[in-house]
Amino acid sequence: MSSILTPVLALIIWTMIMYVWMYATRIPAMQKAGINAAKMKSKSEMDVLPREVTRIADNYNHLHEQPVIFYALVFYIHLAGQADGLAIQLAWGYVALRIIHSLIQALWNFIPARFGVFALSSIVLIALAVKSALALG
Predict the structure, then answer these.
(1) Does residue 46 sit in helix, strand or coil?
(2) Alpha-carbon distance 29 to 99, whole Å?
(3) Whole-prediction pTM value?
C-alpha cells in the first residue's frame, strides 16, 4: 500500500463496482418501465426511470469527470519521483472521499452533504497538485 499507484487502482475498482451497481439497477428498471434499449433514439427516454436508479448512473458519470485529473496527477507524481508519504496519504484521502461521495449520491443524495464531500475531495486534489508544483522549485 506504499505505492502512489495503489490508490489509482482502488478508484478504478470502485468505478467498476459503480458500473456493476448501475446496470444491476438500471436494466430491471428499464424492463419494468417497458424501455427497449435497442429501439431508443434519445437519452431522454430514460427520464422515466426512478430517481434511485438514475442517481447511481449519475455517480458513475461523475467518476469519469474530476477523477481523470486525479489519475493524470498521480501518474505525473509517480513518474516525477515525487511519491512521498504525504502524496500517498493525500491520494488515499481523495479516493476515500470519492467513495463516500458515491455512497451519499447513490444511497441518500442529500445535496449539502454530497457537496461538502465533493468540496473536500477537490481541496485534497488541489493540495496534491500544489505539492507537486512546489516540488519543481
Answers:
(1) helix
(2) 24
(3) 0.95
